[in-house]
């Protein structure tokens, strides 16, 4: 099976390398094929590093990563995959930070082989969810108390988008609590410890029974701690809408957009905005202001404008009241 897989992937790599039938000079997607070639080569190396099964069911060590010392057959040797998973931990961005490392998944990349903006948003959202679960303050605990933290704004700056299978560390930490509101920082680091994306966010504490904001108790905030936020570009408090905006095609909220809070998930608004733009965009700065939650069956009326330095999308109800306003640069 491994041999067949190697043959299949290496044939694809051969084609992507400029041989028929996939010749870059014959296609407008030459750059995409070069990205594909690199990714396929990684897969070929990974498959080649997998242990091979002999006829008697023993494991052959051909194809394993060479090691500086001799190892006996009864000692577990490292495959290339295991070697890629071994990373030198970098210092956390803050004492109260929660972070974890993983490899960019195929489901998180677009046609260029790079992580998409919605995938970055989801990675940040997942990280804060995981921290709450680890601290024993997860969704089930909050739901039992009829409480929830609801995102009210994003400001995300992306230095570069990581690529398929790249090892990245995603992290988050709380920076401020006051009244019903909280602020939280997020970041992505590459395997060398460099920051490649970072974000500020604001949250409101909600009483699920009434749907109104309420003040959190000490048990809801003390376990998170606080630290100084990462430096971010200064931006106006509100997203200014252009004087003239184009109307988009209205859409009805379906079940696939709904999360555990029974409203449209935060990331879905960003995806709607990207899909609405006339040309493909790869923003390096995102701002989102969430005004109110759309729920199942709501009709969203989009308006958008493309300016020289930014694109702005307002997702509204039929009366013009916004659900969310998105700015992309």
Write the layout of secondary structure elements.
Elements (H helix, E strand, L loop, with lengths): L1 H15 L13 H20 L2 E2 L5 E2 L19 H6 L12 E6 L13 H18 L4 H6 L2 E12 L8 E12 L2 E10 L4 E13 L4 E2 L4 H4 L24 E2 L3 E2 L13 H11 L8 E6 L8 E8 L4 E6 L5 E7 L1
Antiparallel strand pairs: 1-2, 3-5, 4-7, 4-11, 5-6, 6-7, 7-8, 9-12, 10-12, 11-14, 12-13, 13-14
Helix pairs in contact: 1-2, 4-7
The major pleated sheet works out as:
12 strands, antiparallel
Cα shape:
globular
Number of helices: 7
The helix content is: 10-25%
> Low-confidence spans: pLDDT under 50, at least 5 residues?
1-85
Distance between the termini: 47 Å
Could you describe the 3D structure shown?
With 329 residues, the protein is an alpha+beta fold. The protein is 24% helix and 27% strand. The strands form two sheets. Strands 3, 4, 5, 6, 7, 8, 9, 10, 11, 12, 13 and 14 form a twelve-stranded antiparallel sheet that branches. A hairpin with a 4-residue loop joins β7 and β8 (212-213). α1 (2-16) packs antiparallel against α2 (30-49) and α4 packs antiparallel against α7 (266-276). The two termini are 47 Å apart.
